Amino acid sequence: MARKRYNDEDILRLLREIEVHLHGGMDVVSACRTAGISDKTYYGWRKKFGGMNRAQLSEMRSLEKEKQRLQKIVTDLELNKLILKESLCYLKPPCLSAELEHHFDRITQIVHRPYAEYVENK
Questions:
Q1: Which of 52, 59, 85, 100 has the most CB atoms in a 10 Å sphere around its CB?
Q2: Contact 50/73 with Cβ under 8 angstroms?
Q3: 0.70 surpassed by pTM
């Protein structure tokens, strides 16, 4: 059997119709059967849309769109952060042990000392 997809307005209409049947004395299973849905679908819809009117439904839709937009922005920012972090690791020299780092600093001091002395003597 093919599944039928209901839009949100149809879901609200069916929920109200089922509530009318329930207040009329029908049980949930028979009220859902007259509406053409299963009781599991009814409980799922009631959990999501229960007590909602059309204004609240449109507000929920706009909030969902805003949430998707913000999630896309966060995803893009996380990707940019990852790219910058990888490029930083690529550009800086590889990590040296403490001993090699000390030798590297000593060599750079020796190399730059004559230049510093030359600048001071001028």
A1: 52
A2: no
A3: no
